[in-house]
Amino acid sequence: MSLVVVGSVAYDGVETPHGKVPRMLGGACTYISLAASFFTKPHIVAVVGDDFAQEDVDLLAGHGIDLEGLERVPGKTFFWAGVYSHDMNERETITTELNVFANFQPKLPERYRSQPYLLLGNIQPELQKQVRDQMGGLRLSGGDTMNYWISDYRDQLLATIADWDFLLINDSEAKMLSGETNLRRAAAKVLDMGPHTLVIKRGEYGAVLFRRDCHFMAPGYLLEEVFDPTGAGDCFAGGFIGYLAGQGINTKGGKIDVAELRRAVIYGSVMGSFCCEKFGVDRFRTLTRAEIDNRYNEFKNCTDF
Amino acid sequence: MSLVVVGSVAYDGVETPHGKVPRMLGGACTYISLAASFFTKPHIVAVVGDDFAQEDVDLLAGHGIDLEGLERVPGKTFFWAGVYSHDMNERETITTELNVFANFQPKLPERYRSQPYLLLGNIQPELQKQVRDQMGGLRLSGGDTMNYWISDYRDQLLATIADWDFLLINDSEAKMLSGETNLRRAAAKVLDMGPHTLVIKRGEYGAVLFRRDCHFMAPGYLLEEVFDPTGAGDCFAGGFIGYLAGQGINTKGGKIDVAELRRAVIYGSVMGSFCCEKFGVDRFRTLTRAEIDNRYNEFKNCTDF
User: So what's the ipTM on this one?
Assistant: First the structure.
């Protein structure tokens, strides 16, 4: 069962207390699809410039990612640079050069349109909607957004997420979207906007899955060393949707196996934790499914009572 | 199996977004012993002034708390007042009047000395040590401390906790005590200071139990309404030690049932969550053991995968 992922493919410059990398592969679509590739076959829709390196194409292709929807246009690839605080809980953006991403119009290859799973990375809500509207026979779709779309494109965003099965956002975004400071009340309001499932990411503190009749709390994995948290939230999303796609989960008729959703949250947390162990996407160069399942079992051991 | 609790009995003035209470029963020893009273019989060691109200004596006695060690001296009871921020994650102290607590010298009634469980609330480390040294036949002892003792009484504190089975502190205190910013490395260093068990409280994000060979993560209960977080950390401590005392747990010979420690962390979280539902100790006036066990089961449902 295959997955379509839409979002940014970029180059990042990152500085953390562990070092500085001036330019490396990044972008939400990159992290999501790499993380998902350990569970299912991702098909990406993104745009890069003519500076996009062959070694980065090879890395993605080497993980079985379908690159037919990776458009290449004249100009430079989206570039972002930032510096993390000492405790890694805050980061300051130094540069955002949208470059070819500024005019990104997602183009879905014909054979992507019948794929059953869709993850819409954080892009303009209207574009997210256009992509979803072109998909036929979706079993499960959802995505991410951010504070900018919540505040300045609220109506478009509400029209977009109304059709989604799930929304994956962080706690401050959930509070902003709902106007509630209490997480549980915020979640109830967001679930009234359309999605039957809401996952609120809380960074190092884990994630909470909300449904109308229950919620599930997953702790954050306690890493001994956080090298670079860039992309961790996107890897969470990739692990979450990747696992569900790999299991062939179906929500048609409004029913869903909540036990599978819970496992998907843990796999999301697992993939987010691995992401932080090295700079950029480096951890995924060597990661194995056996390591992933070992960490999943560690989560079980650390939470069981 | 009975428990001795040492610490402050006080009056608090608290303002939260839900209202303002100028004077109500408070203090670490009060919260710890009330929370523990649902599992075991607490015996308290504390000091109050001649303004301490009979209705507050009655509340404590009504929960089966042994008050023989509650010393009453001329003067006023310890008074603290503070204001919470809108999201309740920060609080500002308005007044701290130590009053009779300034010269607190814990006096252990003779029949307290053979009790098997001891919880030392946050007081001067030297006093904590004096109390513990008077106890014979302890099965399990430990306690709390705070940033002031960690920074200004470090040597005394280290000499004190060296004898403890467990230390219960919050994440910033753990980082300060260890000099490590990473929680897992901080915990490893603290466990080298003596205690075989460390519980790090993370406020709304729950708690982590650390042992040399494993750790256990408990999420924070998601309340729909936090009325007043005052005393929640102390109620966590009361639920934790209270449950273990009630179960008659024994660490002699260095062995301990880790499954029971995990359950104790959940009972601690349960008691901390109830504490926040009303101002001060009000929730404990009506709380029942059945409500406690229901919430324990809610924790199971919200974390199982």
Answer: 0.93
